[in-house]
Amino acid sequence: MTRIVIVGAGFAGHRTARALSRSLARERVEIVLLNPTDYFLYLPLLPQVAAGILEPRRVTVSLVRTLPRVRLVLGEATRVDLAGRRLHYTDPEGSPGELAYDRLVLAVGSVNKLLPVPGVSQYAHGFRGLPEALYLRDHVVRQVEMAGAAPHADECGARCTFVVVGAGYTGTEVAAQGKIFTDELHAQMSRPEEPFGPAWRSPDTRPRWLLLDIAPRVLPELDRRLSETADRVLRARGVEVRTGTSIKEATPDGVLLDDGEFVPTRTLVWCVGVRPDPLVADVGLPVDRGRLRVTAELNVPGHPDVFACGDAAAVPDLTRPLPGGDGADDGNGTGYELTPMTAQHATRQGDVAANNVAASLGYGTARAYRHHDLGFAVDLGGVQAAANPLGVPLSGPLAGAVTRGYHLAAMPGNRVRVAADWLLDAALPRQAVQLGLVSSWSVPLDTSSPELARLPGRNRK
Question: Would you say 317 and 338 are in contact if contact means Cβ atoms under 8 Å apart?
């Protein structure tokens, strides 16, 4: 029986597996999905998990339930043997394994992007996986509670100051949702409680959020109107937006900005961007800006049995040719820009990858990946959002409704549960408790597996 192995169950890998399982349902083809976890993570809603709006399982969709014709193998890919057509992996208990394949689809996704800033790897935490979101949720609650009981105003101010580096899609949403969350916690703790008074000892100190980016505006990769809407909402909410600014050093007591200011804080959230999974560099195939070089059909040149899609692949964007023929090659010598590393592109590349893998086995005809952006949506918390569906700029409650409707439509499951949590959040105060399930050391910034918390005795990078 022909075996197709898909590595990674993110937006690209999950869609590839689903499309193949449907198109080849009647054929003698085995589809195997290798992934460290048994769920698909809907990353765009992760900031709402950190802010206490959604419970963690709401953004995790069961792979077994949504991919009934796909065999799930739990593990992390460690090596690809191109000559022997074998994929080596390590299972969750540390035992090695291998999978032979006739077709291989690399959809391993991306991890936190690192910059050579002193102290960042030690004191910052990323935001690419569920463990990091759970850690941040506990950490924020803990800092606000400890700030409220701090004996000195300086300690109170440092603990309730939160610094987010990177004003892209993720960083903007983390700051927007986080400010609402901490303001609500502060309000609960500031209420007078007889006979001893409020729990918050420093009434003049309020939670402070800083959003930093070296770019000249927030959401620099999106339409300027979306950027202006998000900037306006953030500033009105009290978030200190500092563009053209980044950090020079991180310490246990705060961060030193590149303009010389030192900001006392115990919280540094690193959202400067992503880089392809380290497996890409270890495959031994040509890369372009760290991403595996592929043709417009998502096939690796010289290896007709290997395909790649999503953040791990340098897919030429056929809608954006470059003058002079520079850039990514479509396989015919023409240069193009690379498709952005977004969920929208990854999802649609998964459909094309599935089509072309099937075509390589004699089922159907291969086609090139070509996609025009349908617009973006940024949830800014509460009823606020910025969206431009089909190029129409929206803001306020209407944009909020469109944004949440888009997320419900894009999720492959859990829609009713997510909608129920949204309704409960609108009607009830959030549960501000520390579960203590994820420790700081178990979610290091420099990790190749942000979807897994580090375990005692395991030296996973």
Answer: yes
Look at the block and give the residue holding tokens 């391993």: 108
Distance CA 78, CA 80 (A): 7
Token readout for 71 is: 């065999």
The verdict on pTM exceeding 0.90 is yes
Q: Count of CB atoms within 10 A of residue 403's CB?
A: 22
Q: Are strands 60-62 and 39-41 parallel, antiparallel or unpaired?
A: antiparallel
pLDDT greater than 50 at residue 354:
yes
CA distance 120 to 118: 6
DSSP class of residue 54?
Answer: S
Task: Tell me how far apart the alpha carbons of residues 412 and 260 are, in angstroms, rounded to a whole number.
Answer: 47
Beta-carbon contacts of 167 under 8 Å, excluding residues fewer than 6 positions away, are: 175, 211, 212, 213, 215, 217, 218, 219, 220, 241, 243
* Owner of token pair 């998990």: 49
Per-residue b or e along 212-228, where b marks 16 or more CB atoms closer than 10 Å to that residue's CB: bbbbebbbeebbeebbb
125: DSSP letter? B
Pairing verdict, β 287-288 and 291-293: antiparallel
CA-based nearest residue to 168, from 292, 353, 340: 340
- Distance, CA of 72 to CA of 64 (rounded, Å): 7
Go through 346-385 and write b for each residue having 16 or more CB atoms within 10 A of its CB, e for each that does not: bbbbbbbbbbbbbebbeeeebebbebebebbbbbbbeebb
Instruction: For residue range 5-23, list pLDDT tens digits in order.
Output: 999 999 999 999 999 999 9
Helix (H, G, I), strand (E, B) or coil at 17: helix
DSSP annotation string for 374-441: ---EEE-STT-EEE-GGG--EEHHHHHHHHHHHHHHH-SS-HHHHHHHHHHHHHS---------S-GG
Residues 200-231 pLDDT 10s: 777 778 999 999 999 999 999 888 999 999 99
- DSSP bridge partners of 264: 254
